[in-house]
Write a structure and sequence with these properties.
By secondary structure, this protein is an alpha+beta fold. Helix content is 30%, strand content 39%. It has helices at 11-21, 31-40, 81-92, 107-115; strands at 2-5, 42-48, 51-60, 64-72, 97-103, 119-128, 132-139. The protein has a seven-stranded mixed beta sheet with strand order 1-2-3-4-5-7-6, sandwiched between helices. A hairpin with a 2-residue loop joins strand 2 and strand 3. Helix 1 (11-21) packs across helix 2 (31-40).
């Protein structure tokens, strides 16, 4: 298993993971958007011998990083890869506060984030399509 910062060479494999996990209604990103984020933000990937099997996208803000997306190919889910990817990225981003938004119904993701020290800060009413609520979660370095 290899964990590293993504490069432009990984673009299309990341795009396949995005399409495997998100629809446009779920804010799925296009190849053009992913290319932009590879240049302007931070994407970490996890690879095995078959190729890229997961990624996480961190948006760079002035005083913190915001986790925009984390996804693992469906065939590789529930095997600890998201855990490995999140742990690796937190080590790489050491030194700034972190935050994210997550659907209140995504208990698996909430549990993962809490395991790594994220705390629910507030409820975001009707934040997602179809009036689904979200949580703002933060992890502070202080």
């Amino acid at each position: 298993m290899t964990l590293k910062r993504a490069s432009i060479a990984d673009l299309h494999e990341i795009g396949k993971i995005e399409a495997d996990n998100f629809t446009p209604e779920d804010f799925g990103l296009s190849i053009a958007s992913l290319r932009y984020h590879l240049k302007k933000n931070t994407i970490f990937i996890i690879k095995d011998e078959s190729g890229v099997i997961g990624y996480c996208l961190w948006l760079t803000r002035k005083s913190y990083y915001r986790l925009y997306s984390i996804a693992i190919l469906q065939a590789f889910q529930s095997k600890g890869y998201a855990n490995m990817l999140l742990e690796y990225s937190l080590k790489q981003l050491n030194g700034k506060d972190l935050q994210l938004e997550v659907k209140t119904t995504n208990l698996k993701a909430i549990s993962l984030y809490e395991k790594f020290g994220f705390k629910i800060i507030k409820k975001l009413t009707s934040y997602y399509p179809d009036h689904i609520d979200g949580y703002l979660m933060k992890r502070s370095i202080a």
